[in-house]
Amino acid sequence: MIIRPERWRAVVAAIATPALLRGRARAADAPPPGAAVPDARLTAPLTPPASGRIRVAFVISADAEVVDVTGPWGVFEYVLLGADDDKPFQLYTVAASKDPVRMSDGLIVVPNYAYADAPAPDVVVVPAMNTARLAASALDWLRAVQRTASVTLSVCNGSFVLAQAGLLDGKAATTHHRSYGMLRATYPKVNVIRGLRYVEDGKIATSGGLTSGVDLALRVVERYYGRDVAKRTARFLEYQGTGWMHPGSNAPLAEKPRATAERPICPVCETQLTLKAALTAQHQGETYYFCSEFCKKHFLAEPQRFIDTR
After folding, report:
1. HSE-up of residue 252 (Cα within 13 Å, Cβ side)
2. Which fold is adopted by the domain 5-253?
């Protein structure tokens, strides 16, 4: 996720329980922050391939968020099995070509593979990236490999990429807390779940913002090898977060900011505004306030998608 508003707009421009998988979820539906879920190896197991090597493909493109990639990468890199420190996860990056990719804040990465020659992955990780600059081949590749991959993950606003590919249609998903409204409004076929660290729906799993991807990666490790291995990995990394065992720990982020007379809320992206800086538009006798021309334009095109009637 790209936090600064001008960069965040450029990105978006371009574990739910069964009860949550249909209809509009409420914050109250989320697991309590202190409630741990059972060992995923017992409840949602994944089976390693016969070769024992689990291929993990990280999709990268222009402005891909570094944390969304490096957080899960570090988790999978340091999963160690047995006395020989066997590493079961084989990691690689994939992009439209093998030309260098400039990720967020200037980190340059040379992809290991292009979509045309990338090995078939068992796990796919999709970070937030500039969807306006995303090659059509990326969406085609995601649709193709999702059929055979064990699980496809998005981190932060990577959910917009999966939604753009049609992979979230009819599914529950989450995203960065500043993008709940935008994801819900832009992709009405997606059931956006607020306030969870991660959401799983079939072969798709989506996480909240940024470091939530670390928790979702640990959750995948647990699904393959059990809680003890995931705990050992977290300890080796000196990672003290427990969101992978406590998906409800994002509950405080579930609610929108409260609008006041001086601080209205943009109905599209849910950003809290100042009256002096806000743009305005009228709809059915009501005044609505916006953070940008982008949000105002989207609202005026289809107001009912952005008016919260809950």
Report:
1. 2
2. Rossmann fold (3.40.50)
Q: Is the dihedral of CA 292, 295, 297, 300 positive or negative?
A: negative
Per-residue pLDDT in tens (0 to 9) along the chain, 310 residues? 333 333 433 433 333 433 333 333 333 345 666 689 999 999 999 999 998 899 999 999 999 999 999 999 999 999 999 866 789 999 999 999 999 999 999 999 999 999 999 999 999 999 999 999 899 999 999 999 999 999 999 999 999 999 999 999 999 999 999 899 899 888 989 999 999 999 999 999 999 999 999 999 999 999 999 999 999 999 999 999 999 999 999 999 998 888 999 999 999 888 899 999 999 999 999 999 999 998 999 899 989 888 865 5
DSSP one-letter code for 99: S
CB 61 within 8 A of CB 95: yes
Q: Where are the domains of the chain?
A: 5-253, 256-310
Supply the pTM of this predicted model: 0.86
The yes or no reply on domain 256-310 and CATH 3.40.1350 is no
Would you put residue 207 in left (φ > 0), alpha (ψ -120 to 50) or beta? beta
